[in-house]
Write a structure and sequence with these properties.
By secondary structure, the protein is of the alpha+beta class. The protein is built from 6 helices and 11 strands. A hairpin with a 2-residue loop joins strand 1 and strand 2. The radius of gyration is 21 Å and the shape is flat. Bound molecules: flavin-adenine dinucleotide.
């Protein structure tokens, strides 16, 4: 998520009484709570630790598979050993729309790769490339993200942030590369198509919620 979206979600959580301690270092988990490096104790009965994930490559490396922040696979989900396929969070996969490879952690990505592997194993044509997408439901806020906001040079906002229904479009050279949509299903779905079809858009029309997303799919007016 980009900084605008992060700030938005932080404010919505804070409005419901969630306190953030950003850039705080944890010194210890004690009987009464969490001790921060600055000496303060955050009182707690329960501590949930969410510290990200990394790919455990021990098994893959022992099998001689090429690894680079994940098991390297191609568009058939095939590893450097043609007899071994890998899908999901632990793979470093090509992303043709973005001209680079990365390790993605999302259910849709794992499902897409499962289709790639199944097609290759069954001798079927490779499925069409999908636009990566992600979702998260927080309170009454449905966040849907399509694409990856890499190397973008413009952000276009559409909708009403104060009314908790808006979308942030990330553009590169006038083409939408990613959309972050909050309670904005049409923007998410339309944005996903714009990304996949790499259609140039007029930023002013994109920002204008009275212009239907379908009209934008036809290209600049
Ligand atoms: C808290 C949390 C919230 C998430 N929320 C979302 C979300 O909202 N939307 C979304 O798209 N994604 C979400 N994800 C990510 C999503 O869960 C993963 O991207 C997805 O599960 C990846 O599928 P996978 O098959 O690669 O791995 P997994 O689902 O992790 O499956 C791997 C399986 O392999 C098993 N395994 C591991 N090692 C071995 C071994 N040596 N032998 C046999 N079995 C083994 C594991 O037990 C596990 O069952 C979330 C993840 C977390 C942790």
């Amino acid at each position: 998520a980009g900084p605008v979206l992060s700030d938005y979600f932080q404010s919505r959580h804070e409005a419901r009484g969630v306190a953030f301690e950003l850039s705080a270092n944890v010194a210890a988990i004690e009987a009464d709570g969490v001790r921060l490096a600055d000496g303060r104790l955050i009182a707690a009965n329960t501590v949930l630790v969410g510290i990200g994930a990394y790919a455990d490559l021990e098994l893959a490396q022992a099998a001689g598979l090429e690894c680079s922040d994940g098991v390297v696979v191609d568009l058939d989900a095939r590893t450097s050993d043609p007899a071994v396929f890998a899908v999901g969070d632990m793979t470093h996969r090509p992303l043709p729309l973005y001209g680079r490879s990365a390790r993605l952690e999302s259910v849709p990505s794992a499902l897409e790769q499962a289709k790639q592997a199944a097609s290759a194993l069954c001798g079927r044509p490779r499925p069409a490339d999908e636009v990566p997408w992600f979702w998260s439901d927080q309170y009454e806020l449905k966040l849907q993200i399509a694409g990856l906001a890499w190397d973008c040079d413009m952000v276009v906002e559409r909708g009403d942030r104060a009314a908790d229904s808006f979308a942030l479009f990330h553009l590169k050279d006038g083409v939408v590369r990613a959309v972050e949509a909050v309670n904005a299903a049409p923007e998410f779905m339309g944005g996903r198509q714009l990304i996949g079809r790499q259609i140039a858009v007029d930023p002013a029309r994109l920002a204008d919620a009275s212009v239907p997303m379908k009209a934008l799919l036809a290209g600049p007016a």
